[in-house]
Amino acid sequence: MNGRKLVSRRPLVVALAALTLLAAGAMAAWRVATAQTHQHQHGAEPAAGGWLVKLSPDARTEAIQRQLRGFETTMAEVAYRYTEMYWGGVDGNWDYAAHMQEELGKAVELGLERRPQYRASAENFLLKTTLPQVEEAIKKKDLALFKQRIDALRAGCTACHAAEKHAFIKIAVPTVRRNPLEKP
């Protein structure tokens, strides 16, 4: 009789074990899903309304200028856009190259709003000379012309840096890709 009770309970035991494993798997999946959206905040909790709202209205402009750091952030974005534009052209991804060329120009213009003292150099060496020439090569989808114009752009950027007392900044041809874009 004991053997029969054990045999008749076996499906129940198997079902309970399967249910336990299913619940454990669901809990593990839930932990993974919530971990991907979890955000850590180290240190103190951020102030309600953010750091800028906590400042007096008169202090906000100066704080924003400090955060944008003059022309430094502009140059970081320009370097990124230049590299992406270059690889877009080399890969024949002309729409991407055109997009990056346009965004590069916008970045410089926005930077010049903060630092208008650089406008004359930027226009002489970039905005009214070499950057429109690169745009023309991109529109023609001509790789040889594009590379030629990139060389002129590099020379213009390096000359602009020298004119603004940063002659130690010499622009090279990009060698490292930053974005994993598929080639067309």
**Secondary structural class:** mainly alpha
Number of strands: 0
Output the helix-strand order: HHHHHHHH
Q: Using the alpha-carbon principal axes, give the shape.
A: elongated
- Point out poorly predicted stretches: none
Helix content, binned percent: over 70%
CATH class of the domain at 70-163: Mainly Alpha
Largest beta-sheet characterization? none
Terminal CA distance: 74 Å
Determine the strand fraction and express it as a percent band.
under 5%
The CATH architecture designation of the domain at 70-163 is Up-down Bundle
Number of helices: 8
Radius of gyration: 29 Å
Mean pLDDT: 86
CATH fold-level assignment of the domain at 70-163: Four Helix Bundle (Hemerythrin (Met), subunit A)
Explain this structure.
Among the domains are: 1-29; 70-163, Four Helix Bundle (Hemerythrin (Met), subunit A), CATH 1.20.120. By secondary structure, it is an all-alpha fold. The protein has helices at 2-37, 50-54, 57-68, 72-90, 94-114, 119-127, 130-140, 143-163. 73% of the residues lie in helices and 0% in strands.
Summary tags:
184 residues; Four Helix Bundle (Hemerythrin (Met), subunit A); mainly alpha
Secondary structure topology:
Elements: H1 2-37, H2 50-54, H3 57-68, H4 72-90, H5 94-114, H6 119-127, H7 130-140, H8 143-163
Helix pairs in contact: 4-5, 5-7, 6-8, 7-8
Quick description:
The chain is an all-alpha fold and 184 residues long. It has helices spanning 2-37, 50-54, 57-68, 72-90, 94-114, 119-127, 130-140, 143-163. The chain is built from 8 helices and no strands.
